[in-house]
Amino acid sequence: MKKANWKSGFCFLILSGTALLATSCTFSKDKHKVSREPSTLPPNETEVVDLKSAESGEFMESMIKESSLNKKWWLQFHWSQMYLQDQAQIPTACKLLEDLYQDKKFPLNTYAGLLVKARCPGKSEIEVPLTDRQKTVYKKWLNEIDLTRAVTDNNQETKFILLLELNAEDKDRQAKKQTYLKLLDEAKRLNNEKLVNLVNYELKREFAQYLPDILKNNYDISLDLIKDRSFKEAIGRLNALIQSKEIKADLKFKSFKTIFRIYKSTQNKQDQWTLIERWGKWIKTQTKHPEHDSWANELDILKARWLWTDSQTNKAVDILEGYGKRKIANSLKEEASYTLGRIYDERKDYEKAKSLYQQSHDQSPMKKDPLIKSKNSLFEKNLWSLAWLEYKNGKYEDAKNSLQEITDKLGGESDSKYLYWLAQANLKLGKEDVYKDVLLNLRKKEPLSFYTLLSYRDLKEPIPLLKKSSLSNKREFLVENLKNNLSETEISEVLWLISLEQNDVLQSWSKLLEKEVLTNYLPILLLYSQSGLYQNLLNSIQALTSEQKNTITYSFPELLFPKPYFDDVQKNSRLRSVPMSFVYSIMRQESAFNPYARSSVDALGLLQLMPNLAKKLSAGEPNIAYRSEFDLFDPKVNIALGTKGLQCLFRRL
Hints:
Helix content: 55-70%
Largest sheet: 2 strands, antiparallel
Number of strands: 2
Radius of gyration: 30 Å
Mean pLDDT: 86
């Protein structure tokens, strides 16, 4: 017998003159078998908005008035979570949760029971039956319960093991470190060598700065100190490696590079140049080392780039032009020719720049590869520079050929920018049919990129309106697509977690299903979005085919454009007169909505702010709680300062 679909699954019947109760038609194998139990679906979107609007004092009155069981459940659980945040209200919260746990029809009664065990005094011994899946999903809460029991029983070893396991999940580096140090102090106070060793192992594994303070550990310690922006100490340790006679030349060269990276991060040009000169003198002492020539050439390119950015262009050209005669690796010649091409491009010397870009292209080890193996490679950047140089100088046939080579080598997942300009080059050549075909291909491959939107403008066509899918659509979709992997009870549990915004548990479900659902990608993406796993969401979307992206675009467009931290973005966008869409586009591109994102040049947080800039932006802003660079990992602070920075940018445009 064919399974009943979702649309046949829920009926609404008037059971009395005063009450409208929803009844559930389960997706049973027998489509005629209908359950007449009150609905276990959570309230709909409109109902949830109304329920959220109730003030604390109105809560019990709302409960008494409410005749719908699912709304009563929703109110009970919602307010239990609110009360758990207030120490004085914990007994009230626990009573609400106990009632929900005792009600076996409530879809989250297991979760309610675990919260009672974990958060309610004297309740850690109640029995909460769990399926194998639930033991995985609720592992964090089970650890909390075991931790409470270990503290009660004074079982120090179990307590420490569980605290270390819970701490490992913390994404806040500074908070994690402080927890390890507090545990280490406690283990020492207990005079328990086993616990001291246990904590020390985890501390040193995560934070190399706590390794034994000996010379051979200096490099690893320095890298860890850089993460804490303890630059002065890191540089001191790196210099100790450079000056030591015990350290091999390879590690000394790495230490020079790392110091230079620190100076680039702090944007101190004079310190950079002083280091380059010192570095060069050291390399001259390494003439017998097999890497000497390679090191010298690498430093020369770095020196030329520094001179160019310091407006000493002629000196940079003198260095780079000497590379053509040297016997060095093609990868270094490729970089030297490309940099020199950029300089002549800036000087508007078209022929010279083109010759150098072409020379760099011919020298690239990737020229013979059928596909570009690494996005944003020098090979790709060089081809784009060549194509753009040709296009802006009216050499449209040459530009078309260069752009075609990039799109071919990207293996079908072309950057939308290249396809757009390939279309423009064909239009300039009078090939209007090819122009339209390329734009249509662009829309298919990247349906919502900036360049795709430009294509609608160019062809004078309206941009298709994207409708946000409703919660009911998502419910229908999740039920249909998860019923082969989850039971009816488990699906109901997931739907309630979404409605009650229990993101921590949803994240556990998402990660579990990611391993189990191998063929149907959309339900996992929906759960990533609902639970706030935006980095997982965007990474997964990036790996999809063009056809799959198109499916998302027209079914669940909000997956492509999530809007986390909505209240903070809205508030600061209004304050700074910066469009919310612009803030979100920067956030999406720069950090993938990861509040702990950190770039190679030490830009931090959601909007990737450099600490020096953040310090300037915070001046005269007493309402923005910016005290140190690590506050940039706080979404409220980062968004407040970032939108102020974007406001300054808008004013200059």
